[in-house]
Amino acid sequence: MDNPYLRTIKTFVLRAGRMTEAQRKAYENLSCHWCIPYTGTTLNYIDVFNNLNPVIIEIGFGMGKATSVIAQNNPEINYLGMEVHRPGVGKLLSVIEEKKLNNLYIIEHDAVEVLQTMIPDNSVHAFHIFFPDPWQKKKHHKRRLVQRPLTDLLATKLESGGYLYMVTDWEPYAEFALEELNQTKMLKNKYDGYAPHQEWRPETKFENKGLNAKRNIYELFFDKVCE
């Protein structure tokens, strides 16, 4: 049977970015400890974290600033960060080491493939998607991460009562994502339209750029309803 979520269209472009010397050293020395290799086989969270704490996945963490702060502030929760941009991976690895974060690991691979093959259904407490690429041109809308059927895939991975939290500064993407999430059967908007600012989320570099450009910040917060 064909996988309904299988897509050959990537939701990202792997851009060549120059790594700083510190990022390169962090990647070379620490990736073997804190990066989970892509295997295409189901991940056992206990093998990774050595506990039964809830698991939150952040897709596309950029340079990892918000990721590390949230993980540090919530040691009772396990975090998986997914990112393909190696300089960002190197940066976050250095912070994990500096702050001694034992509850944060990284998977350096296409998040959609990881979700399809490595993440068990009904096992994720939450998805954080902060400032994903809006793919502004209409011909590129098919690359957007937050749209069906990918939102259906995300919903199947969430545990009952889990949540999906997206933030963007691109209003057309916010409107588009709100409609797509509203049409995702297992998800229900926690608020009436856009969500209020979640005070526990740190500001990111992209958020500051959006604010400096006088753009509004749009937050979407959906819960998984009982099946």
Task: Give a structural overview.
- The protein is of the alpha/beta class and about 230 residues long.
- Helix 4 links the parallel strand 2 and strand 3.
- The model has no long low-confidence stretch (mean pLDDT about 90).
Spell out the key features of this protein.
227 residues, alpha/beta, Rossmann fold, 8 helices
What is the topological layout?
Elements: H1 21-34, H2 45-49, E1 55-59, H3 65-73, E2 78-82, H4 86-99, E3 104-107, H5 111-117, E4 124-130, H6 150-157, E5 158-168, H7 171-182, E6 187-189, H8 205-212, E7 218-224
Parallel strand pairs: 1-2, 1-4, 2-3, 4-5
Antiparallel strand pairs: 5-7, 6-7
Strand order of the largest sheet: 3-2-1-4-5-7-6
CATH class: Alpha Beta
The rounded Rg comes to: 17 Å
Number of helices: 8
Low-confidence stretches: none
Structural class: alpha/beta
Instruction: Give me the CATH fold name.
Output: Rossmann fold
Second CATH tier, the architecture: 3-Layer(aba) Sandwich
Q: How many domains?
A: 1
Largest sheet: 7 strands, mixed
Strand content: 15-25%
Summarize, please.
This protein has 227 residues and is α/β, with parallel strands linked by helices.
